[in-house]
């Protein structure tokens, strides 16, 4: 049996590995986001299944980036039908339906979270965004992509401008170490990588004199007032903020 201390050390090392292995990609991702802010454009974020947890992490949360447009389709969320969500992610053509409603343009950016990165929805979403001139950041796992059965013409990693590699093991589980079958880490590492990017954005913005639009908690003094200005700025362009 692994002790709590040993388990914590293992997770901490996985996070450290993700940070070390993506240092340059984190910087480049932050530069892309800073460009979006300078252009007064939007960062679109997308995922399917449990990768939607990462999308929720990017949207309308204390300390989060305000210029985020969450790309969402209810059939992709397991809470609306677990088995159906898996089938939906594998359905070719859904991404184009979603993009037809609102797609990123040349000044925008799409961030797609998908650990396996092989199902048609995330792959076609990235390809569709690139065809419209947008840059694409993939938050995925190269090892998982390599091990997964291919269900699309390409993979998310192949379609991306920048790849943040979570290094998550195929199957996502991390425990027990010799035969992992529980304790999945993709949600933790995806959130960690996203927040590393945000920290870099703030540092770059400070160095270059760019104000970064960040939400504040509604449960601190002045939070509602600060957020009201951001809602006025982005509410008309991001329907989910209404």
TrEMBL record:
Pfam families: SIS_2 (PF13580). GO terms for biological process: carbohydrate derivative metabolic process. It comes from Amycolatopsis thailandensis. One of its GO terms (molecular function) is carbohydrate derivative binding. Gene3D superfamilies: Glucose-6-phosphate isomerase like protein, domain 1. It comes from the Bacteria. PANTHER family: PHOSPHOHEPTOSE ISOMERASE (PTHR30390:SF7), SEDOHEPTULOSE 7-PHOSPHATE ISOMERASE / DNAA INITIATOR-ASSOCIATING FACTOR FOR REPLICATION INITIATION (PTHR30390). This is SIS domain-containing protein. Residues 33-207 form the SIS domain.
């Amino acid at each position: 049996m692994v002790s709590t201390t040993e388990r914590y050390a293992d997770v901490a090392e996985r996070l450290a590995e993700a940070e070390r292995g993506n240092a340059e990609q984190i910087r480049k991702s932050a530069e892309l986001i800073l460009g979006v802010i300078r252009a007064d454009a939007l960062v679109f974020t997308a995922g399917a299944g449990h990768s939607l947890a990462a999308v929720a992490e990017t949207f309308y949360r204390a300390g989060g980036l305000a210029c985020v447009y969450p790309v969402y389709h209810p059939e992709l969320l397991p809470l609306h039908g677990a088995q159906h969500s898996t089938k939906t992610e594998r359905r070719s053509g859904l991404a184009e339906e979603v993009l037809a409603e609102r797609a990123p343009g040349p000044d925008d950016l799409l961030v797609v979270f998908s650990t396996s990165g092989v199902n048609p929805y995330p792959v076609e979403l990235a390809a569709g965004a690139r065809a419209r001139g947008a840059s694409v950041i993939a938050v995925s796992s190269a090892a998982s992509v390599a091990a997964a059965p291919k269900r699309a013409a390409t993979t998310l990693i192949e379609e991306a401008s920048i790849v943040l590699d979570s290094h998550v093991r195929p199957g996502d589980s991390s425990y027990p170490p010799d035969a992992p079958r529980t304790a999945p880490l993709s949600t933790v590492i995806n959130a960690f990588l996203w927040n590393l990017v945000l920290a870099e954005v703030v540092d770059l913005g400070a160095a270059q004199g760019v104000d970064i639009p960040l939400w504040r908690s509604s449960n601190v003094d002045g939070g509602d007032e600060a957020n009201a200005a951001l809602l006025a700025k982005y509410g008309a362009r991001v329907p989910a903020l209404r």
